[in-house]
Structure formats: C-alpha cells, structure tokens
Write a structure and sequence with these properties.
The chain contains 8 helices and 11 strands.
C-alpha cells in the first residue's frame, strides 16, 4: 500500500510515516496544500490520500474538492479537529470517504486505511437532475439551466439531500437528521433559514419554485424543477 499524507505538523507527519513503515505501508509526505494537491492529482499510484484540514496554501477541504472536480477518485481520509462535528459533515459533503479525529489511535488509522484500500476508488457519481436544475456530486457543481450557482457547503448538502428524495415530503426532523450533525440540538428553525437561502439562489433569480412548503408536513423538491 502507498499513501499520500498531507500534514504540515512535521512531528505528526514523521510519527505517522515511521509507524506506517512498520506495517509495510509506503508514505509520501507533503507539508502544504498546494504541493499536496499536485501530488494527489498528478501521481496515480496512491491507494489513499490522508489530508489534514488546516494546511498552508490550500485547505484539506479545497484539495478534496479539486480532486473530485478533476475526476480523481482516490479514497480520501481527512484528519479533523477534536469535536469537529461540522468539519466531519463538510468533509463528507465535499467528497471525502472517511475521517479521523485528532488525536487518533495509530491502530485505528491503519485499520481505516486498509478498509479504504479494500473498498477502492468510488465510481463517478451520477448527476442529479430536477428539470433544468442539476447537481453534479463529482464536481460539486450546481447549475440552473446551465448557469452555475454557488452554494455554501451546508446549502449544497441540503440541496443534495432534497434532490435525492425529490417528490417526497420531508419533515424538518428528517432534514436535520440527514444534513446536520447527529448531535445537533439547536432549533429546527435552522432548516427554514437554509431553505430560504436555497430559494434565493436556485429559484428566485430564475423565476422558479422548485422547493415547495407543504403546510404542517415539511418540504418537497418538485421533480420537474419548479
């Protein structure tokens, strides 16, 4: 097995490199995001890419986003901050395959790497569509009638959740469970807020009404895109 580790903390990087060497795992180390992105996209022999989130040059988020945009499907394991539930959710939204929270167990790291290697690279996701509204999970791209729409990570996650269940009425609790962190204990009104954000980006500028409110029940994405 050969992995790419993108980690700017030299002590952690060297500890991981030495530890994995005892497991007969080769490790190439890059210490900044720019070099890490180049290695991840230009070298085709890595079994897994391990990315820290906070990196100089480009963040781990940006690296995985650009990898998927370029059609690079090497499995990605992201290293997140302790108790970083939102880090984890955003990592999955952008195309990561797994995550570990720092500080992590070396035994668990090895197990996760072997599991990702067995799983192999994922197939390119199918583009989701509702009328002329499209969402491309591979490129993390949303468009309406061919016009690209910029969304935040949370808005994107919400839209993807709705589009994968288009035509189905979804309660706020369903949306919270599917899009927000499992430990979220705030108000359900956050769903209304993000529904409103989405409408302002994918509906109102185009004179559409894809996201419908079903009074007393929840929200529904029109299969025809409004």
């Amino acid at each position: 097995m050969r992995i790419l580790l993108v980690e700017d903390e030299s002590r952690i990087a060297e500890t991981v490199r030495r530890g994995l060497a005892t497991e007969h795992i080769e490790v190439d180390v890059e210490s900044d995001g720019v070099d890490g992105l180049w290695a991840a996209t230009e070298r085709d022999y890595y079994d897994v890419v391990v990315l820290d989130i906070m990196l100089p040059g480009l963040s781990g988020y940006e690296i995985v986003k650009r990898m998927r945009h370029r059609g690079v499907w090497t499995p990605v394991l992201m290293l997140t901050a302790k108790n970083g539930e939102y880090d984890e959710a955003d990592a999955f939204d952008l195309g990561a395959d797994d995550y570990l929270t720092k500080p992590f167990s070396f035994v668990v790291l090895v197990a996760r790497l072997r599991a990702l290697t067995r799983r192999g690279s994922a197939a390119r996701p199918t583009v989701l569509a509702a009328g002329d509204l499209t969402l491309d999970p591979a490129r993390h791209r949303v468009a309406r009638g061919g016009v690209e729409v910029e969304l935040t990570a949370r808005e994107y996650g919400l839209l993807e959740f709705l589009m994968r269940r288009k035509g189905t009425v979804l309660a706020k609790t369903d949306i919270l469970a599917g899009v927000w962190d499992a430990h979220y204990d705030g108000s359900e009104n956050v769903v209304e807020v993000y529904i409103r954000y989405l409408r302002k980006k994918i509906d109102e500028p185009f004179g559409r009404q894809a996201i419908r409110t079903v009074r007393g029940a929840g929200y529904l994405l029109d299969p025809e895109g409004g």
